[in-house]
Every structure is written in structure tokens, then in C-alpha cells.
Amino acid sequence: MKRAWISPMLLVLCGSVVATGLILRGNLGAAAPLLFVFVPLAVVNSPLLFPRSIGALEAQSRSAVDGRPVVFWRPGCPYCLRLRIRLGRSAHRLHWVNIWRDPAGAAVVRAANEGNETVPTVVVAGRPYTNPDPAWVREQLSSA
Question: Using an 8 Å Cβ cutoff, are 17 and 31 in contact?
């Protein structure tokens, strides 16, 4: 099993255990909403929603060749999630770097954001943009 699936599976498992305990105690009304919280959290943190992340150095090399933007992100970031959802299918055309898994990616983000790990940070043609509008990012793909 890949490490990317551990966090989402733990969220579903924990939610299921707690919900089962509530159901066994006869509290079905509290169990259902609990699952409606844990399952979406698992999906948001799963590799199903975000394209496969690569390292910052590989992403920058690929971007230099194909001109596609590099998105630096981290799991659980609502702004990263907004960007990913609003990009739709075109999100797979970008190079995604998870800064929690890639120290070089985190360093790029800190350098672009005065020492802060503010994401999403999108690098287009070597220039960083912090939390850009998804429509603007989509436009950058059409020119790449």
C-alpha cells in the first residue's frame, strides 16, 4: 500500500469506529453526521482528488521543457482544494508538488513568500504567484 493512502484510510477507519460505537449505544442520529464529516475529509486528503505529486526539482525540469505551471500545495489546505476543484480536468496538466513531502518544494515556497509556507504557490515561467485565481491558472495552461 502506498503511503499516500494511509491518512485517508485512518480518517475513514477512525470515523467508522466512532460511528459504530455510537450505533451500538443506540445513537444513530449522531453516527450518520459523524460519517458525513470523516468521509469527505478522507476524500480531500486522498490521492484521488489531487494529481500525483512529484518532487520540486523534477517539476521545475518538466516545466522548463513543456512550459506548464508548477503548483506547490499541501494536504488539508482549503485554498489548494479550491484551486484543484475549479481547475477541473485541466488540473492533471499541471505539475503538483506536495510541500509536506518534498523539502525542496517547501524551500521554494518559503523563498517566494517571505519565509512562510503559503500555498497554493504557482510558479509560471520561473515566477511565483501566491494563491492565484483558478481562472488565471487555467489561462496559463492554454498558453503553455
Answer: no
Check whether the bond before 120 is cis (ω within 30° of 0). Answer: yes
**DSSP letter for each residue of the chain:** --GGGHHHHHHHHHHHHHHHHHHHTT-HHHHHHHHHHHHHHHHHTSTTTSPPP--HHHHHHHHHHH---EEEE-TT-HHHHHHHHHHGGGGGGSEEEETTT-HHHHHHHHHHTTT---S-EEEETTEEEES--HHHHHHHHHH-
What is the C-alpha separation between 134 and 6, in angstroms, rounded? Answer: 29
Please write the tens of the pLDDT for every residue from 59-118. 999 999 999 999 999 988 889 989 988 988 888 899 999 999 999 999 999 999 999 999
Residue 104: how many other CB atoms lie within 10 Å? 14
Residue 133 scores a pLDDT above 90: yes
The answer to whether the beta carbons of residues 7 and 75 sit under 8 Å apart is yes
Among residues 90, 98, 92, the alpha carbon closest in space to that of 136 is found at 90
